[in-house]
Specification:
The protein has about 160 residues and is an alpha+beta fold. It has five helices and eight strands, in the order ββββαββββαααα.
Length: about 160
């Protein structure tokens, strides 16, 4: 697999307005191998500018099985009307939203992301180790940098 791999899934979420009322919101789940720790959710809310959220893939993976998260993003599984759903509570300065996603579709999409970039291999995708090795590799100029440019305060003639 190369770093250009993208795993996407369009689905319809429900924006929960009250216990008895929700409205459909088309959304796009997106995962990019070159950004291996993150998932991206784009909500198409009927305006020229969709709403984008990015949060940890691990948060969504865990949230399919048990409540997790705090602050701006919280995710938890539940059953509504006998069907499994994943609820996402999103908070921002612009407002709060509670979204309901079909658990089977989210889980299937997440499984594809986990096949594309298995858990524990994300850091290898970022090239951090190679970049640090290159950055920290000694160069001929290091010999000049490491020597003391100022003579000692002790005078050689004993003054």
């Amino acid at each position: 697999m190369n770093d250009d791999t993208v795993v996407e899934r369009e689905l319809e979420l429900q924006l929960v307005l009250s216990p008895d009322r929700s409205i459909p919101v088309p959304a796009l789940l997106s995962y990019r191998a070159r950004d291996p720790y993150a998932v991206h959710v784009t909500f198409h809310i009927g305006t020229d500018h969709p709403v984008n959220w990015t949060f940890a893939r691990e948060l969504l993976v865990e949230g399919v099985f048990r409540p997790c998260g705090h602050g701006d993003v919280r995710v938890w599984p539940t059953k509504i009307g006998g069907r499994g759903v994943v609820l996402m509570a999103l908070s921002s300065p612009g407002g709060d939203a509670l979204l309901e996603a079909p658990a089977a579709q989210v889980s299937a999409w997440l499984e594809r992301t986990l096949v594309a970039v298995p858990p524990g291999t994300e850091s290898g995708r970022l090239g951090i180790d190679g970049g640090l090795a290159e950055l920290l590799a000694p160069t001929p100029a290091d010999d000049l940098w490491l020597c003391d440019p100022w003579p000692s305060d002790e005078s050689a003639d004993g003054e």
